[in-house]
Design a protein that fits this description.
transaminase activity, AspAT_Ic, 13 helices, Aspartate Aminotransferase, domain 1, Aspartate Aminotransferase, domain 2, three-stranded antiparallel beta sheet, alpha/beta, binds 4'-deoxy-4'-aminopyridoxal-5'-phosphate, PyrdxlP-dep_Trfase_small, Aminotransferase
Length: 424
């Protein structure tokens, strides 16, 4: 929550004058900085340079399969073994697929619309209305998928432990049109939240009016720690099975922010019935995944320990950037009462909360000064943040010096817009 400090009129005038002067200086510097998307920086991609010269003349997987040929729809078993623990899915229930987990989420939605899910009475497309719960703030591309397929979105407030489960339980129990929920359970995009054990237990056991309700468990940041204390979350797939709802969860993940973004491997994990359902549907669209890429990922990462060691190297590059963001926000805004922000223990984003009604204006002023941010509202369904208060900061891509300039500039915009609002 933003706490407004009560200022005397004279003090406010002085602070506003200073902010206006700082903004004029900022705009005069002709910056061209981009904090929009959570892309890995070139140095992070360089960590996986060796991947691109693999498989280096070896084309057989562990069981002797020639990876250059068709087949193997489930993906290489040895790669699934490496990721089973991180994604909390037994390797036998994990698919290693194409290059994008978002693509898998897209396909799961399309298949659920057009073919009957395990436990469903009919295809989703035959129902009058379909709705998904959308914890907010959340990931804009999840929301874009819902819009694309005419799925209504119902915002649910996030807490530091995951979505507000009182709200979730009520909505799923009363409305059979609610067919799913988007979850980024660890180091969430954008607020860095990690789902508590209680949240996971309630998601697994809650009563849903829809028999074919699905949790889209997008564990995009499962191994993307930023501290010495890696966060562990409870195993939702196992909890669902124990609660008698084995088919409730679709788990997604990918190596996009581990090896090469867009040239990695994506994963899908679920109950045996759901895995068979997706495999059957996938068999219509592809004869098999890119096993050459999968083999080189096996050779490059080697095992779960190799994956962990690689993520330590990623962290060494990312952590200083997140520390710089925290340091500058604290120094420039800490005493103003104009903003609060998250201190994520992993993932790719910091969420900055400014006074209600200010986020769009801060983003606009920043753009005018040459600092491009994710559009305000992108973190909410239909691009509409009703309080106009949330700004997503993506610190990964710029170099440290550029990032520091951009965040310092952003704080000037927050002071300008915040004090202008108070002076009105
Ligand atoms: N899910 C989340 C939560 C993300 O933040 C991202 C990337 N920004 C993706 C999925 C995209 O993953 P992929 O590259 O595997 O499609």
């Amino acid at each position: 929550m933003t706490t407004e400090l009560s200022l005397s009129p004279d003090a406010l005038t002085g602070l506003l004058e200073q902010a206006r002067q700082d903004y004029r200086d900022l705009a005069g510097r002709g910056l061209a900085l981009d904090l929009t998307r959570g892309k890995p920086a070139p140095e992070q991609l360089d960590l996986s340079e060796d991947l691109l010269s693999l498989p280096g003349g070896r084309y057989n997987s562990a069981d002797g399969t020639d990876v250059r040929n068709y087949g193997g729809l489930q993906g290489l078993p040895e790669l699934r073994e490496i990721f089973a623990e991180a994604l909390q899915v037994p390797a036998a229930q994990l698919l290693a697929a194409g290059n994008s987990s978002l693509g898998l989420m897209h396909d799961c939605l399309v298949h659920a619309l057009l073919s009957v899910l395990p436990g469903a009475e009919s295809r989703w497309v035959e129902q009058e209305r379909i709705a998904f719960l959308c914890p907010v703030p959340g990931y804009d591309r999840h929301f874009a998928l819902c819009e694309r397929f005419g799925i209504d979105m119902i915002p649910v407030p996030m807490t530091p432990e995951g979505p507000d489960m009182d709200v979730v339980e009520r909505l799923v129990a009363e409305d059979p049109a609610v067919k799913g929920i988007w979850c980024v359970p660890k180091y969430s995009n954008p607020d860095g939240a990690c789902y508590s054990d209680a949240t996971v237990a309630r998601l697994a056991s809650m009563t849903t009016a829809a028999p074919d309700f699905r949790i889209f468990w997008d564990n995009a940041y499962a191994v993307h720690h930023l501290t010495d204390e890696p966060v562990g979350i409870a195993d939702l797939l196992a909890a669902c099975a124990e609660a008698g709802n084995p088919d409730r969860t679709f788990v997604f993940g990918s190596t996009s922010k581990i090896t090469a973004a867009g040239a990695g491997v994506a994963f899908f994990g679920s109950s045996p019935a759901n895995v068979q359902w997706l495999l059957g549907n996938n068999a219509m669209r592809s004869i098999g995944p890119d096993k050459v890429n999968q083999l080189r990922h096996v050779m490059f990462l080697r095992d779960a320990e190799g994956l962990q060691a690689h993520m330590e190297r990623q962290r060494a590059l990312l952590q200083p950037k997140f520390e710089a963001v925290a340091r500058i926000l604290d120094a420039e805004l800490g005493a103003t009462g104009l903003a609060t922000w998250t201190s994520p223990k992993g993932g790719y984003f910091v969420t900055l909360q400014v006074p209600d009604g200010c986020a769009k204006e801060v983003v606009r002023r920043a753009a005018e000064a040459g600092i491009v941010l994710t559009p305000a509202g992108a973190t909410h369904p239909y691009g509409d943040d009703p309080r106009d208060a949330v700004i997503r900061i993506a610190p990964s891509y710029p170099g440290l010096a550029e990032l520091e300039q951009a965040i310092a500039g952003l704080t000037v915009c927050v002071r300008l817009v915040g004090y202008e609002q108070q002076a009105r």
